[in-house]
Design a protein that fits this description.
The protein is mostly helical. The protein has helices at residues 2-9, 17-22, 44-67, 76-89, 113-124, 160-188, 195-207, 209-215, 221-241, 245-259, 268-277, 290-331, 337-347, 360-375, 387-414, and strands at 137-138, 150-151, 377-378, 383-384. The two termini are 25 Å apart.
Length: 417
């Protein structure tokens, strides 16, 4: 997101200067020369590399899908129970029961899009009113030497296939994410010489161990990643080509889907608003005194962008607003925060862990933990891969950071072209 905002805040380049100056409101491409239009899409050698990456991704996901016992991916059983409540009872599970009874699923706080998709799949397979979640007992040794969260007796044939079918949908969502990452990178780096950058972006995304592992699990992060990638791709198109009604409308639809997918995706709403407001302001011509120049520029800019912002917000509310309204009616606040806090206090009655934010050593440990889990940390946080792989991953991050700094310094010294 920072990368997208950085492009948006920069002045138009030679490749899109004409696009912004000719029709910044709705038709950015008429009059632009072919050289000024980035070559996007999946063609030639890029298509072959992308197909190879997707094949490797699917093979790795298939191995994770078959090797991971049911429930041993993070929070997988709670995600399955969310779907089961919809399948069996036709309603959303309550976040908090208000009694000493634990909630049906700890994931009841999540927006419904992913679970409705999985529910539709289960209903299409004749599971209406039936159970799809195995009744597993927690392994008491999970934090004392065992790598399994649950004890796993043999499952009945009636329950065996449904989790694996739901896992497969996550793999399909991951394929969409990889394609969108590739297309976004090609939009930014359109020349044939820069194609390896797009291929590398797709490979890093699709072959990251944590990504392939979670893609083969029942988890709403898979749909959240796909929706986030789609929003990112549309933002890149708006930044590089200028805002069009088609991209703005699609962005509104995707933001509505984000509201229905995962609360974390709400961060994209202010990002999208900023991206629509930042680029192209300097491209509007003006004459007269300083005050008149400023007023003329701002008013003309706002006349073009405010209708787009209105369409963006309207589509977002039409698609995702009903979930916010439901939370207001049922729980009294748009994100059901009070009910979530009650559920946590009800479920985890022990004293909460308090972190000292001034402890820099602890902050460093948490940072390293975040990077480790981004690369690959399996099971319920008890299975790690070889230490050498983490070292190599940190080395790649360091080299990438050095490369970015050197490139920025080179551009600064070279000055505007």
């Amino acid at each position: 997101m920072i990368f997208i905002l950085g492009i948006a805040a920069s002045p138009p380049t030679d490749a899109n200067k004409e696009v912004y100056s000719t029709s910044p409101g709705s038709q950015p491409l008429p009059g632009a020369s072919p050289a000024s239009i980035p070559a996007v899409g999946v063609t030639g050698t890029g298509r072959n590399w992308l197909a190879g990456i997707i094949c490797a991704y699917v093979c790795l996901c298939a191995l994770y899908l078959m090797a991971t016992p049911i429930g041993e991916a993070p929070d997988e059983m709670d995600h399955i129970r969310y779907v089961e409540h919809l399948v069996r009872f036709g309603s959303f599970a309550p976040i908090s029961t208000g009694t000493s009874e634990p909630p049906y699923t700890m994931e009841a706080r999540q927006p419904p899009a992913y679970y409705l998709l999985e529910t539709g799949l289960m209903l299409a397979m004749g599971r209406a009113g039936k159970s799809i979640a195995p009744d597993l007992t927690g392994d008491p040794k999970i934090w004392h030497g065992s790598v399994l969260r649950y004890l796993h007796p043999p499952l009945s044939i009636d329950l065996l296939p449904w989790t694996y079918i739901m896992r497969a949908t996550g793999i399909i969502m991951g394929i969409g994410t990889i394609i969108l990452v590739y297309r976004a990178a090609r939009q930014v780096f359109p020349s044939n010489e820069e194609m390896p950058l797009a291929v590398g972006a797709a490979a890093i995304t699709g072959l990251l161990p944590q990504f392939t592992y979670l893609s083969a699990a029942v988890n709403n992060d898979n749909l959240a990643t796909l929706v986030g990638a789609a929003i990112g791709y549309n933002l890149v198109c708006i930044v590089t080509l200028g805002p069009t009604w088609r991209h703005v409308a699609m962005l509104g639809v995707l933001l509505g889907a984000a509201v229905l997918t995962k609360t974390n995706l709400l961060i994209y709403i202010p990002v999208c608003l900023l991206v629509l407001l930042l680029p192209g302001l300097s491209a509007y011509p003006y004459t007269g005194s300083r005050w008149h120049r400023w007023r003329y520029t701002l008013l003309r800019f706002l006349r073009q962008r405010i209708p787009m912002l209105a369409i963006l917000v309207l589509l977002c509310l039409v698609i995702g607003g009903w979930w916010i309204a439901r939370n207001l009616v049922v729980y009294g606040d748009p994100l059901a925060s009070r009910a979530v806090n009650q559920m946590v206090q009800q479920t985890f009655q022990a004293s909460p862990i308090v972190f000292d934010r001034s402890d820099f050593a602890l902050q460093a440990v948490l940072l390293l933990w975040s990077i480790d889990t981004h690369f690959g940390w399996f099971g319920w946080g008890v299975l790690r891969t070889a230490l050498l792989l983490y070292v190599l991953y940190y080395a790649l991050i360091l080299l990438a950071t050095i490369g970015i700094v050197l490139d920025l310094a080179r551009r600064k010294l070279r000055g505007p072209q």
